[in-house]
Amino acid sequence: MLEYDEFYMVNVYVPNAKPKLARIKERLEFNKAFKEYLEKLKSKKMVLVVGDFNVAHNEIDLSNPKDKKPDTHGFSKPERNAFTELIDTGFVDTWR
Known about the structure:
Largest sheet: 3 strands, mixed
Helix content: 25-40%
Number of helices: 2
Number of strands: 3
Order of helices and strands: EEHEH
Distance between the termini: 24 Å
Low-confidence stretches: none
Mean pLDDT: 93
Number of domains: 1
Structural class: alpha+beta
């Protein structure tokens, strides 16, 4: 995390859930803790988050969405929901 006068900049690499969602529990725990961390920072000043979230939030983020199974890591419902929750706290996905 870098702190500037007007904002914080956080660079993140979100751990992936691994094939067959072998690490989904750890992934969701990380997401929850990271969201709480960002909310604390955001209560002080603006936050810019960059990095690799290891999630394809919507089908438009995939080249072949119909080929993805519901338990595909990086595209599972729990991972996508966690990203939605982060967006819902006021963050903006600038990729979109």
